[in-house]
Amino acid sequence: MGKYLINLDPKRCINCKACEVQCQIHHQLPEEIRLGLLLSEKMPPTSEKPRVISAFMACFHCEHPWCVSVCPTQAMVRRAEDGLVYVDQALCVGCKACILVCPWQVPRWNQTTGKVMKCDYCRDRLADGLKPACVTACTTHALSFGRPDQDSRKIRQGYAKAICASKEWI
């Protein structure tokens, strides 16, 4: 597991998608590419009020990332010091092996550049002591960024269940 974790408090999330928009702006992405994805599902009302369940899908920065192991050019890198997984754009040849092997379908194809992109927790911002763009943009402070604690495995399992239940993630 990486040194960092983006966590979503679904009770605070209003599904405004400011996190997605700020990520696109920060990384200058085409409209169709979202590196951090806010998944929402309308649930049947439990009382008089309808409710929405949300999960934030960004890279999990796995301890043994499959995307890194299949990359033929070593463009997919896991930093030893903090566990961040990122794409070295200069080495990426666009073979898409990382996209095919990731169980979460996190790496994204950028048709404009012919290369793969993925969430790297805005490592440029981290180097400057800032939080990822998506976390900074969250108007209700539903997204938080920090070091995982003992409950991070449960958090990640909860995300996985929410993501798999959503129809949007594919």
Give keywords.
single chain, about 170 residues, alpha+beta, Alpha-Beta Plaits, two-stranded antiparallel ribbon
Descriptive report:
- The protein is α+β, with helices and mostly antiparallel strands.
- The protein has a single domain, classed as 2-Layer Sandwich (Alpha-Beta Plaits).
- Helices cover 26% and strands 20% of the residues.
- The chain is built from six helices and eight strands; from the N terminus they run βαββαββαββααβα.
- The strands form four sheets. It has a two-stranded antiparallel sheet with strand order 1-8.
- Strand 6 and strand 7 form a beta hairpin.
- The longest helix has 14 residues.
- The chain is globular and about 55 Å long.
- 26% of the residues are buried.
If helices are DSSP runs of H or I spanning 4 or more residues, what is the number of helices? 6
| Low-pLDDT residue intervals, each spanning 5 or more residues | none
Q: Indicate the multimeric state.
A: single chain
Q: How many discrete structural domains?
A: 1
Shape: globular
CATH architecture verdict: 2-Layer Sandwich
Average of per-residue pLDDT values:
87
CATH class: Alpha Beta
Largest sheet: 2 strands, antiparallel
**Helix fraction?**
25-40%
Using DSSP, what is the number of strands? 8
Widest beta sheet: strand line-up: 1-8
Strand content: 15-25%
**Radius of gyration of CA atoms, rounded to a whole number:** 16 Å
Structural class call reads: alpha+beta
